[in-house]
């Protein structure tokens, strides 16, 4: 099984991605590090621990990472998209287990040394990974998959910029300057992989405390998207899609390769641009099949504690 470290800002689609990865036989989550984004880094860790507890998982370390971004202080997340608590206001009980004592960068360093075949899956701003890249011992991961960016597609924060990159463009610039094997999963593909009200009925029918929590938080996310982004009641599966790319389970994934850069100047801040050519970086352009189908099928096939 492929070892995966997830760096995330546990909001609703991050929660779906974590649940998917717990149910995906192709991978094993070996650690989680959190960063501010949808909510603050400490809350993202508390959310992750609560979700893991519902799944009966008590052996995956969860470390808290950067509260503030490189270019600015964290100033509140996206409560209109993910709720005040990041997970749709479902009032999950705090987990009995506390977060790992190590700061996120230390846990990343430890796991990178321990797993030469480590896949890192970044589902939030790239603040922790930029800090790791600048440590003297930073090693290249086998593979880095980033949910982020927008190329031909418009942004979801500004006309150009996607949220994870826009929150901390300076950090993204540091990460994209590394010669790491990096795959971006941008809005160009995540906006067309959605979950609708019928899919939610199917999720709601899965037994177990974790699927129940997911089904409880999703209406908030669907409500944000409905009418504003999509004509009907559906939401984009940004982070689960990136998790599936990291797990290598999607059929017919097409990619382009080239150097990705991030615009830092006002007006275009957080915009991702690419120059085609040979590079260690690529971005997903399309795939066959349906992410929601993979997600529901995996969640249905695992037995979850009640
Ligand atoms: C990305 O930003 C966050 O709000 C989501 O969890 C996802 O990672 C989408 O732009
Ligand atoms: Ca996220």
From TrEMBL:
GO terms for molecular function: purine nucleosidase activity. Keywords: Glycosidase, Hydrolase. GO terms for cellular component: cytosol. The keyword Hydrolase applies. Residues 4-279 form the Inosine/uridine-preferring nucleoside hydrolase domain. GO terms for biological process: purine nucleoside catabolic process. This is Nucleoside hydrolase. It comes from Microbacterium testaceum (Aureobacterium testaceum). The chain holds residues 89 to 394 of 394 of the full protein.
């Amino acid at each position: 099984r492929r070892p995966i470290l997830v760096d995330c800002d546990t909001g609703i689609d991050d929660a779906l991605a974590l649940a998917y990865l717990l149910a995906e036989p192709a991978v094993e989550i070996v650690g989680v590090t959190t960063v501010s984004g949808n909510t603050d880094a400490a809350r993202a860790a508390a959310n992750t621990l609560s979700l893991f507890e519902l799944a009966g998982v008590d052996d995956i370390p969860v470390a808290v990472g950067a509260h503030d971004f490189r270019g600015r202080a964290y100033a509140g997340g996206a409560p209109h998209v993910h709720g005040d608590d990041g997970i749709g206001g479902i009032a999950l009980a705090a987990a009995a287990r506390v977060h790992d004592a190590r700061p996120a960068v230390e846990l990343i360093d430890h796991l990178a040394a321990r797993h030469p075949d480590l896949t890192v899956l970044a589902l939030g701003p790239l603040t922790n990974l930029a800090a790791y890249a600048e440590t003297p011992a930073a090693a290249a991961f086998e593979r880095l998959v980033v949910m982020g960016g927008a190329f031909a597609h418009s942004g979801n924060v500004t006309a150009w910029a996607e949220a994870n990159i826009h929150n901390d463009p300076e950090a993204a610039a540091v990460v994209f300057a590394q010669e790491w094997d990096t795959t971006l999963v941008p809005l160009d593909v995540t906006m067309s992989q959605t979950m609708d009200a019928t899919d939610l009925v199917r999720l709601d029918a899965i037994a177990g405390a974790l699927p129940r929590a997911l089904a409880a938080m999703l209406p908030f996310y669907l409500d944000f998207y409905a009418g504003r982004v999509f004509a009907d009641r559906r939401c984009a599966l940004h982070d689960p899609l990136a998790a599936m790319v990291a797990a290598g389970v999607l059929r017919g994934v097409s990619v382009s390769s080239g150097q990705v850069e991030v615009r830092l100047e006002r007006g275009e801040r957080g915009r991702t641009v690419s120059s085609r050519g040979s590079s260690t970086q690529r971005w997903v352009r399309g795939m066959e099949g349906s992410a929601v189908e993979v997600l529901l099928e995996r969640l249905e096939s695992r037995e979850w504690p009640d």
